[in-house]
Design a protein that fits this description.
Strand content: 5-15%
Largest sheet: 8 strands, parallel, barrel
CATH class: Alpha Beta
Structural class: alpha/beta
Number of helices: 16
Strand order of the largest sheet: 1-2-3-4-5-6-7-8
Number of strands: 8
Helix content: 55-70%
Radius of gyration: 20 Å
CATH superfamily: Aldolase class I
Number of domains: 1
């Protein structure tokens, strides 16, 4: 059996961490859904930057919008909304068939708003209205300022993909923000079924921070903790997720028709060549989760994935690995705070580079049209 299809049977939804106009228009997205069990799609400024720079499919729209006097930010938003709307339409049958569980496509608010609650709410509401598809999701970073925005958007009926999560502590706050938003809907007599959410927990970047510190401390021999902390961190998040589903608060929401806010494993491509290319995917197969895979990892898992639920092993091992890491003098909480700051900065830099690229392309296309 196709390993990706098998993931779906085990309760994990494989999503694609990639979007381009060509992918949708060529029919390849529809093929991935029907043959490979693809169940959703995510995007971010880096992905859109690569898409716009790497394909002439956007040139006519950039030329037209630039000729109308649109700013680079307005041009990008028009392109992104069109791509997400088109992808949502391809996923629409899956969304209906799964009762709204799967088939979502995510669009991110500007990373420049990561520390601006009011600005995030305003942009999320505007993008949600612009895409105008029930299977869209608006990505909001799980920063301190993002938490009240998550609650407000959920309460207003906007499906939210909470992104850039690195720490268990922040994830606990995200769960609280999600529950509060859903409770507000319930208390106001509003339907819970249409609102979907995922919490995107970034994985491999944690090892990217921890492993070099272990290497420096280990001198001659590699530490047995090498390549283990990111998985332990995600497994601990999954344990918290399961705990949250056993609370009276969730029981009340569930009985009113709410679906869980599923953990989504992001950054699951392997950055260190010493680890197998499906390393993080294999370790984090778990029921009621999502794994968003870049094209290379998606293809690798299709080729040689070995799907089986292994999350229980990670949950059992996590406390011991955290203790050993602390004994090695490494402060995981401090590292995850750094990762959040760096993640926001990285997406903001990609967004700025994207706008510069659009401005350059618009200028070149305008000259060429004369």
């Amino acid at each position: 059996m196709n390993p990706l299809v098998r993931l779906g049977e085990l309760g994990q939804s494989p999503w694609y961490d990639y979007i381009t106009r060509d992918l949708v228009a060529s029919g390849e997205l529809a093929r991935l859904i029907h043959e490979d069990g693809l169940k959703g799609m995510t995007s971010n400024p880096t992905i859109f930057e690569q898409a716009v720079a790497g394909s002439p499919s956007y040139d006519d729209d950039i030329r037209r919008l630039g000729g109308e006097g649109r700013s680079p930010a307005e041009i990008f938003e028009a392109l992104a909304v069109a791509d997400v709307r088109a992808a949502c339409d391809v996923f629409a049958d899956l969304h209906r068939a799964t009762g709204g569980l799967d088939g979502q496509v995510s669009l991110e608010v500007s990373p420049a708003l990561a520390h601006d609650t009011a600005g995030t709410i305003h942009e999320a509401e505007r993008l949600w209205a612009a895409v105008d598809r029930p299977n869209a999701m608006i990505k909001i970073p799980g920063t301190e300022a993002g938490l009240p925005a998550i609650t407000r958007c959920i309460a207003d009926g906007i499906s939210v993909n909470v992104t850039l999560l690195f720490s268990i502590e922040r994830y606990a706050e995200v769960i609280e923000a999600w529950l509060t938003g859903m409770e507000r809907r319930l208390d106001e007599g509003l339907p819970l079924e249409p609102v979907a959410s995922v919490a995107s927990f970034f994985v491999s970047r944690v090892d990217g921070k921890v492993d070099p510190l272990l290497d420096r401390a280990g001198a001659d021999e590699p530490s047995p903790l090498r390549g283990q902390i990111a998985i332990a961190n995600a497994a601990a998040a999954y344990r918290l997720f399961e705990w949250s589903l056993g609370t009276p608060r969730w029981d009340r929401l569930s009985k009113a028709g709410a679906r869980p806010q599923r953990p989504l494993w992001a950054s699951t491509s392997t950055k260190d060549p010493r680890y197998p290319d499906t390393y993080y995917v294999e370790a984090l197969v778990a029921p009621r989760t999502v794994n968003t895979l870049p094209p290379e990892t998606f293809a690798a898992y299709h080729d040689h994935g070995r799907p089986a639920v292994r999350i229980r092993e990670g949950v059992a091992q996590a406390p011991g690995r955290f203790r050993a890491l602390a004994e090695a003098g490494i402060d995981l909480a401090a590292l995850t705070r750094e990762l959040e700051k760096e993640g926001v900065a990285k997406f903001a830099a990609s967004y700025a580079s994207l706008l510069t690229g659009i401005a350059t392309k618009a200028g070149a296309l305008a000259v060429g049209a004369r």
